Amino acid sequence: MSTGTYDSILQTIKKMLGIEYSDTAFDTDIVIYTNSAINILEQNGVVPEEGFHITGATETWDAIVNDDNYSMVKDYIYLYVRTVFDPPSNSFVMEEMKARREELLIRLNMQASYDGLA
Asked: Which residues, in sequence order, are bridge partners of residue 99?
């Protein structure tokens, strides 16, 4: 893929959360929440590989994204993980993050329908 999607899903999400790669203290939590987000995307027809989940830093984005939805999938998974793992203390910010997440899910679902995945 031309999007550079060979990066580790776990490491990307950790970076977006501001966690160093070498800090593994929260890996189990992040893996669980990431898999929940992936399952939601799968149920909405966005993720083409049925039953895909991550177990650590070896799984890469190319298994679940394509060039058309790469950024939106990463953004959705990050927002999902952030709102359950490290929610903002400001309720306005939290509501904005949830609204953005919902908008992304709708757009990803529409994109999957256009691509023939859903």
From this structure: none
Instruction: Look up the pTM and report it.
Output: 0.90
Tokens matching residue 62: 């190319």
Report the C-alpha gap between 59 and 16 in whole angstroms. 17
Burial of residue 2, with CB atoms counted within 10 A of its CB: 0-12 exposed, 13-18 middle, 19 or more buried:
exposed
Q: Which residue has the higher pLDDT, 114 or 34?
A: 34
Report the chain's C-alpha Rg in angstroms: 14
Residues forming a β-bridge with 8: 60
Q: What does the block give as tokens for 6?
A: 């060979």
pLDDT at residue number 30: 98
